[in-house]
Amino acid sequence: MPTAAAAATASLRVSNIPPSAVAAELLAFFDSAVAVAGGAFACEIAAAHRGWLSRGHGTVQLGSAAAAAAAAGLASSGRLPRFLGALLSVSPSPVDLLPRASDLSLRAAGAGLVVGDRVAERVFEAADAWDGVRAEVIPGKRRVDLYLEHDSQRYKLEVLFEDMKDCLGCTLDGMGAILLQLNYAPRIHTAISGPAVNSRFMDDRFHACKEDAKFSWVRALDFTPNYSFGRCSTLVLKLGKSALVSDILKSLPFSGNLGELTMNSMDGVGASSNVVPLVHCPRDYSVPYEVLFRLNSLMHMGKIVAKHVNADLFKALQELPVDVSRRIFEKMHKLESTCYGPLQLSNRRLIA
Predict the structure, then answer these.
(1) Angle at Cα 126 formed by Cα 255 and Cα 154, nearest 5°?
(2) Which of 55, 121, 213, 345 is spaced 20 to 30 A from 317 at the CA atom?
(3) pTM of structure
(4) Domain RDR1/2-like PH-like, which positions (predicted)?
């Protein structure tokens, strides 16, 4: 799996830029000169302050790392055409202007995203779903960016590699998919724009981008009606093309292949409270606070799922001495995977 140090970017440092040049011209130049692997994507010419004179150097982000390598090869061999009469100096840039997958095979447009819980080895219960999702795997930053729209608002979800408990290839409704079981909820951002927003790519001489970049991403709260991202622990990304799934899995902390996944609708998402704890003891039962605390801890750690924290489980725990339930919880905390049968585990311990 690529590391942050080894991952190539799709950007180039460019110097000897004529003072009169504007970013749109430089972007068009590289787009024409490197008509492979996506051409050019974005451009920034350095200036001391916004609107000041050019410093004669800048950064061009190509459509892919392959396109950047092609442009660098043209420059090193003297085959890169002159730009407004000037011979440009080109070298690799360690960072991209805009976060984006540097390999075309690590991008997926028109994907489907489902958030929910894995309630059995190959059974998934869905809480919310979106179509038209764009997925970008960025090995250099060790994360997956997911772009979607909800109620006409744009959102970006960042899923860090280190937050992935399991990353499994699977099929869903005959389509290739990736199941991500998470230790922590994705980082949620929303797009804001307007005259008061200081976006890096505003309309000026020294910035140009093929896509709309006149906005800023800011951290946002869970936007789903039932707070699904905070209460559920699993994402399923439906990609469709098996070749694309295999390419993406090569760049993720891959855990294995799951096979065919069955998806059902979730009856309810967690508890009625908008804040932790995630679960509450039903009215007909009474358990010590320690038991409730440990159950919530197991939920947060992904050791158990909300579906199985039900009246039957509370009935069994109510009948157990605290020291016995404590030993059960300690055993569950040591599990390396999710327990899909906490009631059976409690009953076996009770019999023992």
Answers:
(1) 90
(2) 121
(3) 0.78
(4) 113-257
